[in-house]
Design brief:
single chain, little secondary structure, 0% strand, elongated
Length: 75
Amino acid sequence: TDACLNTCQVASCGDGVVQAGMEGCDDGNQVQNDSCLNDCQSAQCGDGIVWSGVEACDDGNRIDDDGCRNDCQSN
């Protein structure tokens, strides 16, 4: 979980290994709408990306009376 993998390669986002203190997640894939975003941050409501199967919408703003509520459900 540090900056050097067991293979002696430098740890990086997308390698499938979570670097402690640097990444929230690292699933090693390029799927942007799952629980781990491509920038190795955990998906959450308000990040502007619809988390498939969890959120109905995610417009990334804090306006609650537009088409997407602040809890990432459609109005």
